[in-house]
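re: ur question from yesterday

yeah so i grabbed the chain u mentioned. its 271 aa long if i counted rite. heres the sequnce exactly as i have it in my notes:
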Amino acid sequence: MAPNSARLLPMTAVDLNSDLGEGFGVWTLGDDDALLDIVSSANIACGFHAGDPSVLRKVTELAVERGVAIGAQVGYRDLSGFGRRFIDVVPEELTNDVIYQIAALDGFARIAGSRVQYVKPHGALYNAIVTHTEQAAAVVEGVLRYDRSMPVLGLPGSEWLRQAESAGLATVHEAFVDRAYTAEGTLVSRRVTGAVLHDADEVVARALRMVREGSVVAVDGRTVGLRPRSLCVHGDTPGAVEIASRIRSGLVEAGVDIRAFVDLSGSHPHG
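ran it thru and got these structure tokens back, copy pasting raw so excuse formatting
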């Protein structure tokens, strides 16, 4: 999937997203307050893999105060596993779970003066629907039932985005600046050493390459073509705030504007 870089024009604007609101009760994870000063879109946990009503309300209010777009980070019903374990859930139940999660977050977003503006699956669900046809269809159905005007965020080439686009949903390609890629353009399993990148210099360089050249180097050295409209940096890894800040600074210094993808090309961007 190596692109012809000479034919690709560098992007002048890109979205920077992160998974937030992943605390629960007395447990905290990541620095939501600091990251909301850096990112342009917040994928907020909806209570199934993380997040509780107080966390959801706090993070949605902070996001609105900072002008950050709010996205529903929907996942499997798996608090103890942080949503990182595959669950062979019945499709109809998965659809209902997706609707439930979007609606819960949307309630807090609305009382904060905004709304849920897009949907991004989390963890094992995100990875499953890259290829899992039935579960991809179930998640698409959940978004359609709740609000078919919502864009959806996902991995380029995934079954999830293919079905979403076929159903008339706006699809947005994202890339992960701090995750290793396979030659097929999928993410390396977190169980594999080196799947999550921690070196700030390396991560910044990858972000710039993704934006400038539309590509990333896979673990086997091959070049994988990407044209992301949004870059994801994880908020639950050590040094996440520093890395995210470095990425934003590096992009801005390179002349790239950081803006929520819902604002990049109207309300419903494709690709």
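noticed a couple things. The longest helix spans residues 91-111. also The chain is about 35% helix and 15% strand.
anyway ttyl
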